[in-house]
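Quick start: what a row looks like.
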Amino acid sequence: MFKKLFSWWHEEILLRQALDDSAAALDKAGEMFSFAMDLLSEGMGEKQKIYDMDQEVNALQIDIRKKVLEHLTISPEQDVTASLVLITIIVDIERIGDFAKNIVELHNMGPGKLRDGRYVKEIQTIREKIESAIPATRSAFVDADAGRAKELLAEFVWVGHKCDTVLEALVGDESLQVREAVVYGLLFRYLKRISAHLRNIASSVVNPFHRLGYRPD
């Protein structure tokens, strides 16, 4: 299904532009995520930058909505499903950016640079997974690569389970200071949500519209 929609997008100028804008927004959200993790882990970066990048993503979201609406106004009977997919996907991308902002805000709550130890290692592992998955998700989406999208869906399931496992361990870890426990708990929750929004994007390549965000049948 997605292959057919994708071929139509390349025939329709406005939808093609909206697709390109979606890819650019995901690139920017990925940049926001890496920036946020650098700031939280190493204290590197000026916090205002995350809000500037967030405005860029918001501007792209508005532009995508405008282009999709204009396309549907001109051709109300064409590409409705493709248009709905783009409108849905940009919301997921915007939410990834929002969670990156939330991670930056954790820096204000924490005790400074995160201590070395089990949780930092888990954070690094999940970070690497997400950072490699963002451009891979972008490529799978833009290229309509169903095979790669299915591989990514499995990776996102792994990230979700890993975050849940670590959160369970945090609950019973009395060695942590309260502020540390709060920061770690929220961070793993944010990482899980970022992974879930990436999963939604990847699922659009393999699922019909009504099953976006769910496992393929």
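That is the whole record. The mean pLDDT is 88. The chain has one domain: 2-211.
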